[in-house]
Write a structure and sequence with these properties.
With 505 residues, this protein is an alpha/beta fold. It has 15 helices and 24 strands. Among the domains are: 172 residues, Rossmann fold (3-Layer(aba) Sandwich), CATH 3.40.50.12780; 97 residues, GMP Synthetase, Chain A, domain 3 (2-Layer Sandwich). It is globular, with a radius of gyration of 23 Å. It starts with a helix and ends in an 8-residue tail after the last helix. Bound molecules: malonyl-coenzyme A and adenosine monophosphate.
Length: 505
């Protein structure tokens, strides 16, 4: 017996005094020191009475300690459930309740509010702050640096990541050890990561991209990371010459290109730039190559599946495409109504199957059945086509989703809040182009007959319940929403009408 995820991502580095994390203040954490910290945390979690399979909900700032907490959960067989630091209490309450978390780990600043939520369902609370202080590390530091790794098998759950749905309710995507491990090992090979790699890591580690792609690839390859708390242009420019590779959302690339200090010389030591989580404009791809000589490698993935496709490392990285299905990933394009596979070149629903595909939504068998076919194909909700050379193009979304700076926003969640406001008959929330975030949120409100809702009051009210990145950038009053003959709101018409709202036409 063993623990595949822990053994192959973490355990393989036991005793190595080689650098793992380079911190912006000049400190370095070696693999050995990192694993000691993880073992101490695993001992602390076990001492709290947690058992394999228990969920640990974590809403903390990015730090080496948070990463060690992820390792500790893997080692102790606990299910790691990281949460966006922007979420407000109303949003967190749902995740904590729905997951049945046994432990909530949060910033000291949120301890009082979250303790009420956690205790209501017998969950314990520990604190961990961005500087590593808090009760979790206080306890951990008194613990042994050895922890007897808990046995696990491939199909055991390793993590839950919540992803919203078109109904507005979030679903916990259950990711197994094999899902995470198989994808990480595939990506290491496809992208040629080695022990020599130094990844410039500025993504959050509460989502797939920063945790299961960037971090797991570095762990599986034995490389190291320049581990930044967030994306800060000055840090990026200062530290890029020491890195070999970077992974980012398209906003990273447009922000770099928008800064006059970003010059090709800074990228001489780099071997690979990867983009994903949202569409990279072909124009950004071209500008980046013109300035640096590097062709960004774009790939496509999602919470439920980790990575599905990637442009080739060798061979043509084609702008505006997401490349080829990864080894072991089957991809087909189907008719949205019949589910039949479409002839090559036609646009339809992208479906994927492979060891990367999750095992379902936590305690939501109907939603799982609606999206994960019995034969193992997952219906991604993305519309695409495969061109004659085999490159996959994502041409749109069959799901009502906005992606702002790489964060997903489900309009339904915001519409439900807007519809509840005084004087509002109905609402429609759409994504429109935005120069920095790719897309941004616009809320359209139809008043009740004879009423004039106060948009400032409404904005303040919805902001209270929603993470900052979900806030509508603007609310607009309209007499009526455009509808088709079936009575369905025509969001395409609204998106067309307001497409130049935040960008020059
Ligand atoms: C921050 N803000 C955002 C935002 N990020 N608003 C909309 N969309 C976002 N993504 C808010 C801030 O709270 C702030 O509010 C204001 O916008 C401006 O902030 P900023 O300082 O300019 O933003 P910054 O903190 O620099 O963050 C921008 C960012 C960040 C792009 C660096 O959002 C980011 O790291 N995004 C990556 C998301 C990611 O990892 N996605 C992967 C999901 S996994 P105020 O009130 O202060 O003005 C996935 C699968 C896959 O999708 O395929 O990878
Ligand atoms: P998430 O649910 O946060 O994992 O977001 C996954 C979604 O992001 C996918 O279903 C796509 O719609 C989108 N996405 C990820 N990578 C890309 C990409 N390279 N191009 C276009 N869309 C992408």
């Amino acid at each position: 017996m063993g623990n595949p995820l822990y053994d192959r991502l973490f355990g393989i580095h036991a005793g190595k005094e080689t650098p793992f994390l380079y911190l912006p203040d000049g400190h370095t954490i070696t693999h050995a020191a990192f694993l000691n910290m993880a073992a101490q945390i695993a001992n602390a979690l076990t001492a709290l009475g947690l058992n394999p399979g228990d969920r640990v909900a974590v809403q903390v700032e990015k730090s080496p300690q948070m990463l060690a907490l992820y390792a500790a959960c893997a080692q102790a067989g606990l299910i790691f459930l990281p949460l966006n630091t922007a979420y407000k209490t109303a949003e967190l309450t749902y995740f904590i309740e729905n997951s049945g978390a046994s432990l909530v780990i949060c910033d000291t600043a949120n301890e009082t509010e979250l303790t009420l939520v956690a205790h209501a369902q017998n969950a314990k609370v520990e604190t961990l702050n961005g500087d590593g202080s808090g009760s979790l590390m206080r306890n951990a530091q008194t613990m042994p640096t050895h922890f007897e790794t808990v046995n696990r098998v491939d199909d055991d759950l390793a993590a839950f990541l919540y992803t919203s749905g078109t109904t507005g309710r979030s679903k916990g995507a259950m990711l197994t050890q094999a899902n995470l491990l198989s994808n990480a090992e595939t990506l290491v090979r496809e992208w040629r990561f080695t022990r020599q790699d130094v990844l410039l890591h500025a993504l959050p580690i509460f989502h797939t991209h920063g945790l299961f792609v960037a971090t797991n690839v570095i762990l599986a390859s034995g490389g190291s990371m320049i581990f930044l708390p967030n994306f800060d242009l000055d840090d990026m420019l200062r530290l890029m010459p020491q890195a070999t590779s970077m992974m980012g959302v398209p906003t990273f690339y447009t922000r770099l290109l928008g800064d006059a200090h970003f010059i090709g010389d800074l990228t001489r030591h780099m071997r690979l730039f990867i983009s994903g989580s949202a569409p990279l404009l072909a124009e950004t791809h071209e500008q980046f190559e013109a300035l640096t000589g590097h062709r960004i490698l774009e790939r496509y993935g999602m919470t439920e599946t980790n990575m599905n496709t990637s442009n080739p490392y060798d061979g043509e990285r084609r702008a505006g495409t997401v490349g080829f299905p990864l080894p072991d990933v089957e991809l087909k394009v189907t008719d949205q109504d019949s589910g039949e596979t479409l002839p090559q070149g036609e646009i339809g629903m992208i479906e994927v199957r492979g060891p990367n595909v999750f095992s379902g939504y936590w305690q939501m068998p109907e939603k799982t059945a609606a999206e994960l076919r019995e034969d193992g194909f997952f219906i991604t909700g993305d519309l695409g086509r495969v061109d004659k050379d085999g490159y996959v193009h994502i041409v749109g979304r069959g799901k009502d989703l906005i992606i702002s700076g790489g964060f997903n926003i489900y309009p339904k969640e915001i519409e439900l809040l807007l519809d509840d406001q005084p004087g509002v008959l109905e609402s429609a929330v759409i994504g429109v182009p935005h120069p920095d975030f790719g897309e941004t949120v616009l809320g359209i409100i139809v008043p009740l007959p004879g009423q004039t809702p106060d948009l400032d009051t409404i904005m303040a009210s919805v902001q209270n319940d929603l993470a900052r990145f979900k806030h509508p950038r603007e609310l607009i009053l309209m007499d009526a929403l455009p509808r088709n003959t079936m009575g369905k709101v025509q969001k395409n018409a609204l998106r067309e009408q307001f497409r130049d709202r935040f960008v020059k036409g």
